[in-house]
Design a protein that fits this description.
With 413 residues, the protein is α/β, with parallel strands linked by helices. It is built from 14 helices and 14 strands. The strands form four sheets. It has a five-stranded mixed beta sheet. A five-stranded mixed beta sheet has the order 10-9-8-13-14. A two-stranded antiparallel sheet has the order 1-2. A hairpin with a 5-residue loop joins strand 11 and strand 12. Helix 2 crosses helix 3 and helix 4 packs parallel to helix 8. The chain is globular, with a radius of gyration of 23 Å.
Length: 413
């Protein structure tokens, strides 16, 4: 990481080190906190690293790294791996994040369902709570969170409960929009206007709360826990009730000026009838839901169990075909602005459906005139249907223990 001009990269190795206290309240210098976050971030990215490799990648002295790692280990944030013996010298001991060192909670609010996940320090989902509804209203969402957080806390031993870093919330911005598409009454959805969800959850649970756009949070989950290491730059599409997305540049999430970068649902594309529409009206689950209802088919399995759908037959086949064609045009459009290396596709559906959508999108790209554009690799994302909740759960971890995602991957060579 090039830290020149940003933060000092060394500390006095003789000074006592206070690592970030998982129960909160530690008062420490910015330099010390930065170095602790830097070490934790490097270990997280590479899964396990010995002291010498951490020193090389971070630019810190070996002695400083030893002091920091010893303190992090004492606070149960790092754990030792099996020694690796070379031909000469002392054996190398790789260090890894301790999964039980920190926990976080992620809340995904959708237009048909909500998820609450308990995640450990390495991204493992320990518990999942799922609730469905016709449409979300503030009071019911808050009640779900309060009861759910208590359930998740009780699933941990006492020591683990004290190590919950906070709650991340992934929600569509302006939930009161697109009322007609989900059949929600305007009066009830208008309750979201001016409602400070983060503040209400913080008061009700006593935990720090971090808010993010749902598709951006899903993109962050893919960057950190999915295929983020494979591509330097990628456009990310997540198909939920409405399609959204995210942008990754130079292996860092780019949220944009208002946190809404990658709002791909607003891209103009031709609909099945050739008339111009927004991508959201062609490649979203609410479109499939409407088609199923029109065909007399119960659409409730779409949100009751996003990992195990019923076979919806010809209606699903046509929706996948139309979705792939629309996504192909959207991918060509965004690639004419940014030379993306890849376009990753995910959504609230089974992996088999994702694979079919990716295949349909690739076929759609082959039918387009791409002269002047280098088409990106079109591939399946890896995190899956819970990406928004997992991305939400990662927010408290980065806010409290890890370096900012915009600098996380810029290591020293």
């Amino acid at each position: 990481m090039d830290t020149a001009g940003a933060m000092p990269t060394d500390i006095d190795p003789r000074a006592p080190v206070r690592v970030i206290d998982p129960s909160g309240g530690a008062n420490q210098s910015r330099v010390r906190e930065w170095n602790e976050r830097l070490v934790l971030s490097l270990v997280r990215r590479h899964e396990r690293l010995p002291k010498a490799e951490i020193a090389r990648r971070s630019g810190l002295s070996a002695q400083t790294v030893s002091v920091i790692m010893r303190a992090l280990e004492e606070d149960d944030l790092l754990s030792r791996g099996a020694p690796i013996r070379g031909k000469v010298g002392q054996p190398s001991i790789p260090m890894a994040l301790n999964p039980d060192g920190v926990f976080s909670i992620g809340l995904k609010i959708g237009r048909r369902s909500a998820d609450l996940v308990l995640m450990d320090f390495v991204g493992g989902v320990r518990s999942l709570l799922h609730e469905t509804f016709r449409y979300p209203v503030p009071g019911s969402i808050l009640a779900f969170v309060v009861a759910g957080v208590e359930t998740l806390r009780k699933s941990l031993p006492e020591a683990g409960r004290r190590r919950i870093a906070g709650i991340g919330v992934a929600t569509p911005f302006e939930l009161w929009n697109w009322l007609d598409e989900v059949g929600a009454p305007r009066g009830e959805m208008d309750a979201w206007r001016g409602y400070d969800l983060a503040a209400e959850i913080a008061v009700a649970t006593g935990l720090p709360v971090h808010l993010q756009n749902d598709a951006t949070a899903a993109c962050g989950a893919e960057l950190v826990f999915g295929r983020g290491r494979e591509f330097s730059d990628f456009a990310y599409f997540f198909i939920g009730s409405f399609i959204g997305g995210g942008v990754v540049l130079n292996q860092a999430l780019y949220p944009g000026r208002t946190g809404n970068a990658g709002a791909f649902g607003s891209l103009p594309v031709p609909g099945p009838d050739g008339a111009p529409r927004q991508l959201i009206d062609c490649a979203s689950l609410f479109v499939l839901e409407a088609r199923l209802r029109a065909a007399g088919i119960d659409p409730s399995p779409l949100w009751l169990n996003p990992d195990d759908w019923t076979d919806f037959g010809a209606v699903l086949d046509r929706w996948i075909e139309d979705t792939g064609a629309a996504l192909a045009i959207a991918i060509a459009s965004v690639s004419s602005v940014i030379d993306f290396e890849a376009a990753l596709i995910d959504g609230g559906f089974p992996a088999a459906i994702r694979a079919r959508i990716v295949a349909a999108t690739r076929a759609g790209l082959e039918r387009l005139d791409l002269q002047g554009i280098t088409p990106p690799v079109v591939a399946e994302a890896a995190v899956g249907s819970r990406a928004r909740a997992i991305g939400a759960a990662s927010l408290p971890l980065f806010a409290r223990y890890l370096t900012d995602q915009n600098v996380l991957f810029k290591e020293m060579g």
